[in-house]
Design goal:
- By secondary structure, the protein is α/β, with parallel strands linked by helices.
- It has two domains: 3-148, Response regulator (Rossmann fold, 3-Layer(aba) Sandwich); 164-368, Rossmann fold (3-Layer(aba) Sandwich), CATH 3.40.50.180.
- Helix content is 36%, strand content 19%.
- The protein has helices at residues 3-10, 33-46, 58-65, 84-94, 111-119, 134-148, 170-178, 194-203, 224-235, 289-300, 317-325, 342-349, 359-368, and strands at 24-29, 49-55, 72-75, 98-103, 123-126, 185-190, 213-217, 239-241, 247-248, 253-255, 261-266, 272-277, 304-308, 329-333, 355-357.
- A seven-stranded parallel beta sheet has the order 8-10-7-6-13-14-15, with helices on both faces. It has a five-stranded parallel beta sheet with strand order 2-1-3-4-5, with helices on both faces.
- Strand 11 (261-266) and strand 12 form a beta hairpin.
- Helix 1 (3-10) crosses helix 2 (33-46), helix 10 packs parallel to helix 11 (317-325) and helix 11 (317-325) packs parallel to helix 12.
- The chain starts with a helix and ends with a helix.
- The model is unreliable at 1-20 and 151-167 (pLDDT under 50).
């Protein structure tokens, strides 16, 4: 190990040097001194990031965050004592920074990866093994940190004063929805932070809600079988990954595969079926929330409840406009409970939201806001 590498590996929490005022501050949490040194060298060589702290365990990380501000936390999972997954909720509570899991256990489709995302991690990255390219790892690390550096809760322009639905309490929102007809389908869109929000919403969803539930969550295809299995356990209702022409059934959830848009069509008997497509869409997402919302509005018109949870960007906003125009109902997650208020915030700024609530409140609303 070079002298510079050894110094980077052994350093403790540090204050941001005056010359790096424009750089984003990163806390590295990893029990491996070598891994900390490699990550520090990559970050500081970029000129865009500075290692504000480098610690070997979760306890030291919490102590550091109690006195220092950072923009991002890089967290290993496999550490002695308190492991990264156990520590993640406390770390998220201690900082507004985004947490990127960097671990050998964070492969695509791995149980630990989906658990981390469900607990609120913003993204994951596999730590390279001895035979892997460290240069490629460095490129991926910087790319993910750049993406996470986009404003989590951007100030979105609104052409009019904040619409009345944004000020509705849960009780008033429930009464407003109760005045509408019953819904035939519930469609949910989410991205960064959405797994955690979706879990909270589904746990609050009672068995009395029997409409088919369609879900588009931005995740790679390899995650989807485990993701569907987790949702089955959380919601206490069946969930399956969409395949073309799959029939929509009462009380069942269908999630979009990671490599296709989930659309639906109306059947002659009044029910619905799933259709998959992979065309380019404005948001650039695959799967995208927009085509799902647009298709349910086309198939079921005003009898649609569309929900937008935490996520970066604007995916879902154009689809929500179609649902709104068809007379359907649109509910979005509120800003305080969102990891990223980009997607729900975009819908709210356009004045398309009938209610803006925390995930658990949305779950309760689905039971109380339906006409018998």
């Amino acid at each position: 190990m070079s002298a510079a590498t050894h110094a980077a590996a052994s350093r403790g929490p540090a204050s941001l040097p005056a010359g790096d005022v424009g750089s984003r501050r990163v806390l590295v949490v990893d029990d491996s001194a070598v891994a900390r040194a490699v990550i520090a060298r990559t970050l500081e060589a970029s000129g865009r990031f500075v290692v504000a702290g480098s610690v070997a365990n979760a306890t030291a990380a919490l102590e550091f965050l109690a006195r220092e501000r950072v923009d991002a936390v890089l967290l290993d999972i496999q550490m002695p004592g308190v492991d990264g997954l156990t520590a993640l909720p406390d770390l998220l509570a201690a900082t507004d920074a985004r947490v990127l899991i960097v671990s050998a256990a964070a492969g695509e489709g791995a149980v630990a990866t989906v658990q981390a995302l469900a607990l609120g991690a913003a993204d994951t990255l596999v730590k390279p093994s001895s035979g892997d390219s460290s240069a490629r790892f460095g490129e991926q690390l910087l790319e993910k940190l750049d993406r996470l550096g986009q404003p989590a809760n951007p100030v979105l322009p609104s052409p009019a004063p904040v619409p009345a639905p944004l000020r509705l309490s849960e009780r008033l929102a429930s009464a407003a929805l109760a005045a509408r007809d019953n819904f035939d389908v519930i469609a949910i869109g989410a991205s960064t932070g959405g797994i955690h929000a979706l879990s909270g919403m589904l746990r609050a969803l009672p068995a009395s809600v029997t409409q088919p539930i369609l879900i588009t969550q931005h995740l790679p295809a390899s995650f989807m079988p485990y993701f569907a299995a987790q949702l089955t356990l959380i919601a206490g209702r069946p969930c399956e990954v969409a395949v073309d022409r799959l029939r929509m059934r009462p009380g069942r959830m269908i999630v979009a595969p990671g490599d296709a848009h989930l659309r639906c069509v109306r059947l002659a008997d009044g029910g619905g079926a799933v259709r998959l497509s992979s065309e380019l869409v404005t948001s650039g997402c695959l799967p995208s929330v927009d085509p799902m919302f647009a298709s349910v509005a086309s198939a079921f018109e005003s009898r649609v409840l569309a929900i937008v949870l935490s996520g970066m960007g604007r995916d879902g906003a154009e689809g929500a406009r179609v649902v709104h125009a068809a007379g359907g109902c649109v509910v979005v997650q509120d800003q305080p409970s969102s990891t990223v208020w980009g997607m729900p915030g975009a819908v709210a700024a356009l004045g398309l939201a009938d209610a803006v609530l925390a995930p658990e409140a949305i779950g309760r609303l689905l039971a109380g806001g339906r006409r018998p």
